[in-house]
Amino acid sequence: MGITKTDFMRGIQCKKMLWLDKHKPKLKVIPPEIQMRLDAGNDFGDRAMGMFGEYEEMTIYRPGTTIPDKKAMAERTQEHIKMGTSVICEAAFLYYNNYCAVDILRRTIQGFDFYEVKNAPQVHDQFIKDAGFQYYIMNRCGLNIGHIHIVTHGEDEEHPFVVNDVTEEAKGYSNWVNDNIWDLNRMQKQTDEIQIEPGEQCCKPYECWYYGYCHDGQLSISDISKSNDPLN
Ligand code: SF4
């Protein structure tokens, strides 16, 4: 398998992080508050699927697991594109084994727009880079993508979604994705562990789940800030 959007973003933050994901994933320690945020994000994403009315969802799991069957999902997506389905959720694409699944792919007169749903009050640069990776894969798969959107939280339950157009910025990341994707593909397959000194990348833009492993079992940054918190 090549790399996914998540692999790409993690590999850009730190190559060793991606290498550990592939070779020593059991060393990962996901803080409970982060896991809660990830779960809440999934719920928000599920609700957003219906924002344009009826839709077809492409998710297929490997038998007896909750692991997505990427190949089957990509094939199903192609069937729905050929059938003219208007709104395709979890639309999956494979390009030389590199994979992406977009939250909502919506047919337009010229081609498609897509929407990435983020459980956040505003758009961050990381979200636009994410969308740039997805645009790169879909564009290389021959899809005509018009507009690219990030969906964030609305102000209340009556207005749950805000649609932010990030087309220009996301498409602008295409060359950057191409400059990195093949190196990350090669690197993740190497057998020797990548040697990288811990540094700023361990906490930016996200705190690394291998923090303890690379810092000789030290507490993570969030644990340190909690222990320094007078209210804790
Ligand atoms: S803790 Fe730092 S050096 Fe280690 S994998 Fe994570 S980001 Fe890379």
Task: Give the topology.
Blueprint (H helix, E strand, L loop, with lengths): L4 H9 L1 H9 L8 H17 L7 E2 L12 H14 L3 E9 L2 E10 L4 E6 L7 H16 L4 E12 L2 E7 L1 H5 L2 H16 L21 H4 L6 H7 L5
Parallel strand pairs: 1-2, 4-5
Antiparallel strand pairs: 2-3, 3-4, 5-6
The chain binds iron/sulfur cluster.
Iron/sulfur cluster (SF4) binds next to α2 and α8.
Description:
With 232 residues, this protein is of the alpha/beta class. The chain has one domain: Lambda Exonuclease, Chain A (Alpha-Beta Complex), CATH 3.90.320.10. It contains nine helices and six strands; from the N terminus they run αααβαβββαββαααα. It has a six-stranded mixed beta sheet with strand order 1-2-3-4-5-6. α1 crosses α2 (15-23) and α1 crosses α5. The structure holds iron/sulfur cluster. Iron/sulfur cluster (SF4) binds next to α2 and α8.
Radius of gyration: 19 Å
Order of helices and strands: HHHEHEEEHEEHHHH
Uncertain stretches of 5 or more adjacent residues: 224-232
Characterize the main sheet. Answer: 6 strands, mixed
How far from one another are the termini? 44 Å
Order of strands, widest sheet = 1-2-3-4-5-6
**Structural class determined from secondary elements:** alpha/beta
Count helical runs: 9
Ligands bound here? iron/sulfur cluster
Anisotropy-based shape: globular
β-sheet strand percentage: 15-25%
How much helix, percentage-wise, in residues? Answer: 40-55%
Mean pLDDT: 91
As for the number of domains, it is 1
Task: State the CATH class.
Answer: Alpha Beta
> What name does the CATH topology carry?
Lambda Exonuclease, Chain A
Name of the CATH architecture? Alpha-Beta Complex
Number of strands: 6
